[in-house]
Description:
It comes from Stichopus japonicus. Keywords: Membrane, Metal-binding, Sodium, Transmembrane, Transmembrane helix, Transport. The chain is mainly α. The protein has a domain at about 1-15 and about 25-120. The chain has helices at about 10-15, 25-40, 45-50, 60-95, 95-100, 105-115, 120-155, 155-160, 165-180, 185-195, 200-230, 230-235, 240-265, 275-290, 295-305, 310-315, 330-340, 355-360. Helix 4 (about 60-95) crosses helix 6 (about 105-115), helix 11 packs antiparallel against helix 13 (about 240-265) and helix 15 crosses helix 16 (about 310-315). The longest helix has about 35 residues, at about 60-95. Mean pLDDT is about 85; it is low at about 355-364.
Amino acid sequence: MGLTLPGHTEGIKFFITPQWEYLAKPRSWLNAAVQIFYSLGASWGGVITLSSFNKFHNNTYIDSLVISIANSLTSIFAGFVIFSYLGFMSHELKRDVSKVVSQGMAGFYRLPEAITLLPVPTLWAILFFLMLLSLALDTHFASTEAVVTAIVDLLPERLRKHKMMVLLAYCIVGYLFGLICTTEAGPYWANLIDQSSASFAILLFAFLECVSISWIYGFRRFRNDIRSMIGDKMVDHPTFWGWIFQWSFVTPFILAIVMLVNFINWSDPTYNGPYPIWARGIGWMISSSTLMWIPIFIIYRLTSNSGSITERFQKALMPEETWGPIRTEDRQHAWETHEKHGTTMGGRKNLADHSTEMEAFTKA
């Protein structure tokens, strides 16, 4: 429908025309990296949480390829749709497309104006806002499940049978904190929260995840974990080493460079001008609230172990005894796969000593 509106060509031309000067701006790389992580859901915890409900032998390798390709194609298609409407808005406002795009969230306030010019505008308006609602709910489903599952898994014997109450409490707290975004200053708060919690932190989480899996847990062990789930054919294919190389070297290196450059060129968040000092202080508190859990859990693991400092570090870097598949037959298969290919799974071969905890998991 956007292609039927005047000015759509200017919007699409703006979308597909490269602006090479932005490659020299560190903020562009940070925004691009965060957008990729946001659209794919990587390193947020939601994908890992939802995938934990899959069957053990589900082909996650194919799933990851399909999701990545579908995500890219969907983003490109959405870009054509959005920028065709932005081109129309620039035509109506007699302003350059770049000025309309730079309005950020305000650009979407004017987007419904373009919908009023379509045939049956009421229907299209309803569909448009239903789409926005579904996108918001979809994002919250994954993030909420990730947080609630993590909380319940900390104390499964106590909390798993009360998971609905934990979910209700989390939703109520999230609702109360979100009320501030519904005020007249809502866009300012939403932008501050977005830039403070979903930029540098997510890249750091991804970096630590790659380093932990590839170099601490071990990429050979991780490779055999995948082998035990999907078989030898794909894992033994030469192209699979490309993934290992990316997990171990390319991705951590790129993330480290992006974080370092942006740290050196750090700038405070802005929205129609700079934020006041007290608002920037709140932004730093938001950033700290997402990052503080890393040292907290490191200290927790070290203090909960026994022995010397060196022994405590060694134990903290080892997989837990319950690590691995829950079902006995899957666990035996994974253990044998690791032994056959020269690695260890890390967890116990027999979970008989953890029957109470496993019973709590299987009843979920």
